[in-house]
Amino acid sequence: MNRMTLLVLGLGLSLRGFGQIARAESQSQPSWSAFPVLMYDSDIGLGIGGKGIVKNRFHSDESFDLILFGSSRGEQWTVFTFSIPDFEIRQGKRYPLAFDFSVEYDKLLKSNFFGIGNGSRDNKFQFPREFVKIEADFGRAFTERIIAQIGCRYARYSSYRYDPEWNTISSATPGSGETSVTGLFGRFRLDTRDSQINPGRGIRLELQAERNAEILGSKWRYSRARLEFGAYRKVFGTRSVLASRFWTQHIDGDAPYTELSRIGDSWTGRGYKADRFLDKAMSLVSVEYRYPIHKKLGGVLFADAGRVWPSITEFSLRNWHGDWGLGLRYYLENFVVRFDAGFSPEGMRIFFNFGQVF
User: Residue ranges of the chain with pLDDT lower than 50?
Assistant: First the structure.
């Protein structure tokens, strides 16, 4: 990871001239934020690590974002992201060109697989899984609110030491063992939010289309279409926010199980185990009431409901999986620290992560 960090730092230097063109209308002041982590998560156990962001170090409105994390259940998680201009700096501004690049590595000794389908049964079988993801995209804001992006993504997955006698995951499961995917994507976004880090008002409507092909070692060919809508409104004064989200997506073709639509983790159904429900299509509704507690500390009450289908054409309002919960937010200048406790008919889950869920 150190070599990769140096490589991308060098990329940032070489793109300094690029930043003179790509920067937003007004340049921000240099800043940084860092947060050490000692926490417990239901899926990964006791963890230690940290996150840090440096912005505008080379006076091109760029940002370098790094997460280093390890846990008692064997997770090793590293994420590096480089953006020019930075996401928050360019929010609500018109710009001719932006570039984002990220590398993520995650190894989890105790991952889950419950089968495919909305009625899959809970189990306690766990096995090691790891992946590496590399993603890069270029974007343009045609107006302060209308943004388009095109990019590419490569991901490699490894699932191993599972037992076929579990009658869940086996060598016949799509994507078990070693596999990789390579894809091109395009995004279109209407975004009137006042912030990407902690929005208090506005809407976000994003459409994404992705095509994965049999290149660079990938053995899969499928398409993904995704629609996500979020709305934010200040209530009971100027600091409390009511936030809502609707997210639906559909996969056409044959995809590995690691790429399927899912309900269950810290980003979707927060009362369920990670990857609890998998299939080609999914829909999810989430509502959060975010309120201040003291200075940088805030609280949240939330509810999620979602389900999966073999195809989005089978959409119905029956048999959705719901959860509710509460959490804490710690607001730094450049990111949000998040702690959530979710409750569902299958029990309680505790999650710690960075950034608002939506």
Answer: 1-26
- Closest-CA residue to 307 (of 120, 112, 149): 120
- Give yes or no for a cis peptide into 310 (omega within 30° of 0): no
Residue 247, CA distances (Å) to 231, 252, 304, 317, 328 in order: 12, 17, 11, 14, 23
Q: Which long-range contacts (CB under 8 A, 24 or more apart) does 25-30 make?
A: 25/93, 25/94, 25/95, 26/93, 27/56, 27/59, 27/61, 28/55, 28/56, 28/61, 28/86, 28/89, 29/56, 30/54, 30/55, 30/56, 30/57, 30/59
Mapping DSSP to helix (H, G, I), strand (E, B) and coil, where does residue 262 land? Answer: strand
Say if CB 297 and CB 330 are below 8 A apart: yes
The enclosing domain of 179 has a CATH number of: 2.40.160.50
Question: What is 30-68 written as a DSSP string?
Answer: PEEEEEEEEEEETTTEEEEEEEEEEESTTSSS-EEEEEE
Instruction: Say how far apart CA 79 and CA 69 lie, in whole Å.
Output: 9
Q: Write down the pTM of the prediction.
A: 0.87
229-244 pLDDT tens trace: 999 999 988 889 999 9
Q: How many domains does the chain have?
A: 1
What 8-state DSSP symbol labels residue 280? Answer: S
Sign of CA dihedral 122, 124, 127, 129: positive
Q: How far is CA 41 from CA 265, 267, 350, in A?
A: 11, 13, 5
Closest CA to 312 of 274, 269, 277, 261: 261
- Please answer whether residues 357 and 338 qualify as being in contact, where contact means their C-beta atoms are separated by less than 8 angstroms: yes
Run of H or E including 288: strand 281-294
pLDDT 10s digits, 326-353: 999 999 999 999 999 999 999 999 998 8
Domain hosting 187: range is: 2-354
Calpha distance 49→267 (Å, rounded): 20
